[in-house]
Write a structure and sequence with these properties.
Hypothetical Protein, Haloacid Dehalogenase-like Hydrolase, Chain: A, domain 2; 9 helices; Rossmann fold; 20% strand; four-stranded antiparallel β-sheet; 249 residues; 11 strands; 2 domains; alpha/beta; seven-stranded mixed β-sheet
């Protein structure tokens, strides 16, 4: 059996920018009783607090949970409170170059929307995230914008020419995540291996974007056994199956 089960957040544990529901909370808490759990997402730390941590019971079981915001460029663990172990932050010059490149690509591809809900380009310290319709866009609008990832694949191709020294991955429903080179979910997987002393062969990863260019794909490239899920409802079935298997041992 696997010692560590790793999840993406948006589209996997919850709809984009939404909180986990009561059923997911109960399933995750049950999973924490039988295995270590980690969550890696392009979201910033406050997003994890709002979407997941605020909906889990406080207790010693949280010591089994590792949280890796911004695609693994940060790492939090629980010891009576949540504490940051590391952060791979950009310099001011790097941030400026990335934001300029994103702005130019948006203009070139004609991706400036008629309406924005919040920031379109967000500085998350160790990651710059582009959200096509803004950070607070309604889920229904986001789901219509790029359901097949084709628009963001075009962005990724152009950004690869403009800022080849950075990693560009597609995440969430409308987002593009940019990190330092080599820092993506594979980086987070290796950090989990080093910090938790759990071999990659003893991990399982579940995510909705496990395909070339998707921001979950680096986990598969790192050698982790992966399960691609369609949505949080399918993730619930995966978790329930894992818990049942452990319980039957």
């Amino acid at each position: 059996m696997k010692k560590l089960v790793v999840f993406d957040l948006d589209g996997t544990l919850a709809p984009s920018k939404s909180a986990i529901d009561d059923e997911m909370s109960a399933l995750l808490y049950s999973l924490l009783q039988v295995a270590r759990v980690a969550i890696i997402s392009g979201g910033a730390w406050p997003q994890f607090e709002k979407q997941v941590l605020a909906h889990l019971p406080i207790g010693d079981r949280l010591q089994q949970l590792s949280v890796l915001p911004t695609c693994g460029t940060q790492f939090y663990e629980y010891d009576n409170e949540w504490r940051l172990l590391y952060a791979e932050n950009f310099t001011a010059a790097e941030k400026e170059k990335i934001v300029t490149a994103l702005s130019n690509v948006v203009v070139e591809l004609g991706y400036k929307p008629q309406q924005l809900w919040g920031e379109q380009i967000e500085d998350r310290g160790s990651q710059i995230t582009f959200s096509a319709l803004g950070q607070q866009a309604p889920l229904a609008e986001k789901q219509k914008w790029d359901p097949d990832f084709a628009k963001r694949q075009k962005m990724k191709a152009l950004l690869a020419q403009l800022i080849p020294e950075f990693s560009v991955n597609l995440g969430g429903t409308t987002s593009v995540d940019i990190t330092k080179p080599g820092i993506d979910k594979a980086y987070g997987i290796h950090k989990l291996k080093d910090i938790l002393h759990i071999a990659i062969a003893e991990m399982l990863f579940a995510g909705d974007a496990i395909f070339p260019g998707g921001n979950d794909y680096p986990a598969q490239e790192a050698g982790v056994d992966c399960i691609r899920v369609r949505d949080p409802e399918e993730t619930k079935r995966v978790i329930a199956t894992i818990v049942a298997c452990y319980t039957d041992l």
